[in-house]
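Tutorial handout. Part one gives the primary structure; part two gives the three-dimensional structure as tokens.
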Amino acid sequence: MRDAVSIPDVNGKHFPFLPMLIAWAMVSLLLIVTGWANIISGAGWDPDDQLRMVQLRDFLAGQGWFDTAQYRLNPPEGAPMHWSRLIELPLALIILLLAPVIGQPAAEIAAGLIVPLGCLLLVAWMLGRIVLKIAGQQAALAAILMTLTAPPLLLQLRPMRIDHHGWQIVLATLALWTLLWPRQRAAGIVMGAALATWLHISLEGAPMTAAFFGFCGWQWAMREQAGRRLFFGMASFAAVSFALYFATSGSPFSVVAACDVVSTPHLSAIAAATAILLPAIYAAPRFRLLRFGALAVTGAAALAVLLAIAPQCAGGAFASLDPLVRDHWYALVSEGLPIWQQADARTMALAAGLLCALAAAWWVDAQLAGRARRQLRQIMLFVIVSAALTMLVFRTVSVAAAFAIVPMAIAVSALFERYKREDAAHRHIGCVALILFLMLPGAVIGQAFALFDGTDDVKASEAGGAPEIALERCAAPESVMALGDLPKGSRIAAPFNLGPKILLTTPHSVLASSHHRNIAGMRSHILAFRSAPDDARRVLAQHGITHIAVCSDEPEMQNYQRTVPDGLYGQIAAGRAPEWIIPMAPRGDGIRVWRIRQTR
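Part two.
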């Protein structure tokens, strides 16, 4: 049956700009309406968005470009942050332009709308261009519509999602697009710059960067003429990596090796690879075996340099985490876990949608020929790599979902052509059903999981809906804002996920948040809530903590209560708080607050 469908060329090669803009505007309006509560509060969707806005405000208020520490985390020392100012630039520019006209709060909201929705438009445009080149205008339009309705993408590209996740999708898609560019020099330069920028804002891009250069290396090894793309890609990657490092660090090479951001060991590895690979490509060895050998030496040298300077980085970006922090924080962050450790069936459904891309590619492969078939197969290599990464670390699902749109959009176009040729009603229905399934595979699979599990909204509400609603109300920005009436200069110990919201909505400081470089604060935070009261008091006193504020339904706090019932929070929750903790009136919608009696 694979040869029963064809993808015609009659669709044309003109990009559907106007339909794309109309669809994007409609989806943007829908996202704004449905997310209005998060938009008007200015708090975004998660602690990363909230702390990013706090960082941005500090920058606009005069904190240095090269100083990215957050001084209201673990005061007075503050917490070092590995976040790049690069992400804050477009947000800052919009706020600086609009604040004199509409005021700072409204300008922040405007920036939170423009930047992520602009990224959504960029991703839709680039995926549309990729599919247009392979399968024509009709398939390109399908790719655009699928991009604008794909839940994994909308989660990271919706209004007020201002952290770096959306830019990762943009840069990954740009790198993918360059694989289809006929001009190897331009393609290599743009690919290298995109990958270097991706790594600069997040080392999560390292595996895909290796995949892109591995693919280009394979092409060069197989065909000497393909070396031009690899040469300019590697040169651009090295140049942009060094430029971004010096532009944002403001200092010469540091002797301190950081594993969570591009630093001295990574740059040294890049320099070693560049010094070996560029001369090898320029020399243009005639024999394929020599080209493979050059690639092997390049990879081995880069890895050897990295491990020689920073052997601890072999364990990944979080290798230096304190064991206590790793066990009681990082190991509980579901997005960093492999797919088989995800508890939510809907999460499983998002990953299962990637399998649809593989099936779609297999189905349409026979319908393409020549260059179009080769291009689809190149894209599928990266779909497979990104899907494998998603299986290992679920937070990478958005990039994988973006790549998977290419084969699925082509399959949708092929099915639509078949639909137009079929006469039987049942075949029409079958084509429509398959098209709808490919357009929203995650939603369909998610509903199937729910049906097989026998769950429904009523059962879910009875099982756990009430605590979830209570937590949502308690942790709402309007609720947290009520902590602002505590004495000026208060230092608060609060759940990790509540910390950034306290920083965003009040003038107070917090001991820790879910941001890993604040190792001392995170360790003390965990120790304080888990230790016996006398030990906890000493820990809190060392940091000058004046108040404890919690939402009782916060999973972190419930975990402390369940695992260490005799610890500080376990005793507080059981109504056996020590005498040095003085209960105060609740704030907001159920935030429990205690004042710590200071020792003399």
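Part three, for discussion. Strands lie at 491-493, 509-510, 547-550, 581-583, 592-596. Residues 1-6, 454-464 have pLDDT under 50 and may be disordered.
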